[in-house]
Amino acid sequence: MSTHVNRKVWKRAQSGHLEGWAEYARRRVAGAPERRELWAGILAEVEKRAPIRPGEKILDIGCGLDTALDFVETEVSGFTVDTLAAELAAFGLSARAAHAAGELEHLPYRDAALDRVLLMNVLDHVRDAGSGLRETARVLRGGGTLVLSVDTYAGRRYQTKRLHKWWARARRAQTKHPLIFSKGSVERLLLGSGFRELDSLHVPGTKARRTLFLAHKC
Ligand SMILES: C[S@@+](CC[C@H](N)C(=O)[O-])C[C@H]1O[C@@H](n2cnc3c(N)ncnc32)[C@H](O)[C@@H]1O
After folding, report:
1. Residue among 6, 42, 83 to mutate when testing ligand 1 (max atoms within 8 A of CB)
2. How far is CA 193 from CA 140, 178, 189, in A?
3. CA of 14 to the centre of ligand 1 (A)
4. pTM for the whole thing?
């Protein structure tokens, strides 16, 4: 399965996100406990494997309306990038980070500018996952950490999903997930983009298919 889609397919996915965020904003309660619980579980796993140090420069790419940085207890310098940042600003963005509109595939940062990148539930929503991961490696310093979560499928479920994606594209139907991955395809992309994989595990508190990958820039 391809790791990129054309801009039209991706744009359809983006309008789905905007509708989703507008709905979320209507229901949003500051510090919603289930969201706090979800991020606490994820960050506890991250702390065991690649602890966050005070002062780290951390970028949350595809942060959506509530950045994970809100739940990081260590004092860090936070940044976010989302293609919908301008639209999302109307709903109110976190004061914990500096926000920018931009694409994973063309990040507005210098080479090696960051210590850590969060790419949480984003990779199957983008236009070009391969160039996005190479761009992520570019902005991370050597040894910097990538924390990535994405839905991964195996066996018959993967084949069925591929068929559904193909059919949705043929009908020009909107799908919020233009791309689909197996665990192996994410690992290959990471290794081919300048990362060495540190670990992968199930994301606590989510469906079985959500996988958390921790990788270091080579
Ligand atoms: C499913 S949401 C995930 C939000 C958040 N990271 C979380 O875990 O709750 C995916 C987000 O990725 C953003 N996105 C999609 N394609 C992108 C790209 N190429 N570059 C940056 N952000 C992108 C969307 O606008 C959307 O807000």
Report:
1. 83
2. 12, 20, 6
3. 9
4. 0.95
